[in-house]
Amino acid sequence: MSLKSLTKDWEPMSYGFLDASAKCEIRRKTLKAIAVPGCQIPYASREVPMARGWGTGGLQISCTLINPRTTVKVIDQGADDSVNAASIRRFLSRVSGAPTTTDTLKADLIQSRHRIPEEKLREDQVLVLQVPNPEPLRPVQPNMSIARQMHADADYGRMWLQLYEQIVRSGRVMQGASYPSLVHGRFVMTPSPIPRWDVPKMHMAKHLTILSAGREKRLHAVPPYTRVEPLVFDDVPYQVEEHGQLTCTRSGAKGYFMNEIPQNDGTSTYEVSDSELGIKTIQKADGDTVELGDTWYQDGEMTQ
Amino acid sequence: MMDPPQIVKTRPLLLARGVSKSFGAVKALRDVSATVYPGEVLGIVGESGSGKSTFLRCLNLEETPDEGSYTLDLPDVQGNLFDLDRYARRMLCATRIGIVYQNPHLGLLMKHSSSGNVAERLLVAGERRFHVLREKARGALDASEFPLERMDAPPIELSGGMQQRVQLAKAIALEPALLLLDEPTTGLDVSVQALVLDTLKKLQQERKITMVIVSHDLGVIRTLSDRVMVMKSGQVVEEGLADQVFQDPQHAYTQQLVHAKL
Ligand SMILES: Nc1ncnc2c1ncn2[C@@H]1O[C@H](COP(=O)(O)OP(=O)(O)OP(=O)(O)O)[C@@H](O)[C@H]1O
Ligand SMILES: [Mg+2]
To answer: Chain-centre distance of CA A194, in angstroms?
Structure first.
């Protein structure tokens, strides 16, 4: 009996580029992350045909979850058509045969860099966020082992002190993206570099969010219906970017997170950051039949 | 008819028994015991290397001795504190024990604001209202006679005396049950030293904080302490009421110390 007779030749059964054991490991770690919301779980982080720092963490999660019946959407800073989003989308589709979409409502799996779509996600959808720096304690504790200990002890005094210092020095909390947030009342996580605008969308959301850092080899998760509370003082309210009153110059959409486009005369115009929402708004204005989902924000205010 | 004399049964707040600690071949502490009653100030004197700081670090639960027991008579605090796990130690020290180190770098974040250094204690204890943090930090700094117009300056920009006041404010911000001071005035020039001592004395009189103060300067110990413990080579060689020890030292080493000073 030879080894060859006991094993199979290569068989195209492993969807999504990664071999079965790599996906198995990621699934186990993901389950662990879901069981302990907000806790960073180390994982092997395999090589994928993309440079570290370009979303390899998110890509490995997507490769693990995808199958030929998964409809996948990929965005980068809210846009489906940026180079990075387009190449990740094409890669995912090629290695799995999964259909792709730009419509948030039609997607089963959404991989994103730095944004959460404006249309509300559902229980049957999974959001995968690419994370460059998963450790919220890094600015206050560069030593990873001590930082782990601090998480274990829920020793977050220094995080609060940072906010205190920002208010004392600048009169307000300066932290923009990656706003540290307490998950399920236990672990402080970084929600990846999404703007403050997007953080409230995670709170008690219906969908599962998986946050994965390929270079740092750690992932964490926010399960459906989980509390996500940005760290704020009781008497200094959390403030999102002041985009509520801005109007998109291309689509006319109003009350959503905007990209600022500086003009030659020193002023700025704005375009809605969620590009698909902009397209839907234009189509609707043209009289096309489009399904615009419920949005988290309405007229610039977060709805409950 | 006169009232019968009240028999006040006070129990000691701090009870340390048989504390020994070695660093390799160096026996830093040998069978050191100490008793401190509520509101009392215990002064520890002794030459350099006699184990004073090591003992204080043990009392602050930063160091675990090889042998010995340590209890504090406080609500919710039971048993030998040296047996507590890391988390329980941290919570106890963060809320009930204040410490001022000789070296302000050990006790302060030099680049954060001074008020922030004080506020950190309150944050660890769970305070989440910004205006309360400000008020309490201001109050503690004021009690330490720190110039309030500089409350948001980082310690790195302050004089040594002011840094010690920030440490003191941090230590008293939560009204600790026990205040530990390790050479709080060493390294300051004489006039500043006197002012910091005045502050400590005032605080002690107003708040009746229980203190353990370590110094190799007899003058400092004499000004503040009710009782004195003299250490040499990791051992307690003499202990007693401050006046007694200074006026009538029993042990040859103490006699030497006292006479050298006079
Ligand atoms: N972490 C350590 N590792 C090794 N030896 C130590 C350590 N800490 C203290 N020692 C040793 O223990 C002895 C007592 O030191 P300690 O710092 O307690 O003395 P001290 O009375 O505070 O002296 P000083 O007046 O100079 O501050 C010294 O011999 C010292 O070298
Ligand atoms: Mg010392």
So the answer is: 7
- According to CATH, what is the number of the domain A20-136+178-224? 3.40.50.11310
Beta bridge partners of B44: B214, B229
C-beta neighbour count of A204 within 10 angstroms: 13
ipTM: 0.89
pLDDT at B248: 86
Q: How does pLDDT run across B127-170, given as a tens digit for each residue?
A: 999 999 999 999 999 999 999 999 999 999 999 999 999 999 99
Determine the distance separating the centroid of ligand 1 and the alpha carbon of B26, expressed in angstroms.
9
Q: What pTM was computed for the model? A: 0.89
| B123/A164 touch (CB, cutoff 8 Å), yes or no | yes
> Which one-letter amino acid corresponds to residue A75?
I
Round to whole Å and give the CA distance between B98 and B210.
10
Domain ranges of chain A: 20-136+178-224, 245-287
Query: Would you say residue A51 has pLDDT above 80?
Result: yes
Contact B128/A at CB under 8 A: yes
What value does the CA radius of gyration of chain A take, rounded to a whole number of Å? 20
Rounded to the nearest whole angstrom, what is the distance from the C-alpha of residue B229 to the centroid of ligand 1? 17
Query: What's the burial of A264, exposed, middle or buried (CB within 10 Å: 0-12/13-18/19+)?
Result: exposed
Angle at A183 between CA A180 and CA A187, to 5 degrees: 80
